[in-house]
Structure prediction request, 107 residues.
Amino acid sequence: MHHRIGIALVALALVGAPALAEESKPAPASGTSSTTEETVVVKKGSHHELRIPGMTRVAIDDPEIAGIDALGKGVLRITGTQAGETALLVWVGPEHKRSGYRIVVID
Prediction:
């Protein structure tokens, strides 16, 4: 019987291995979900400011496409660095509600 459990554990480990090999991304706090998806278009070399009161955390998928700077008091500056698209995630408030933004940088 112990032999069967060992085989089952090895099989589970092999099946789960591809998922573990993926790039680690921050998991949202329990009970949170992406509540909005807004598109922000920025010209290469310029910037756009978002006002997000209660912002607690931000993450950008590809910092080579757009840079982000928290300016304080819920203001986030997005700077277009090269043409393309990337995703921006913002967590807000004590509940850590997550919002998603599609960032499009144009020439």
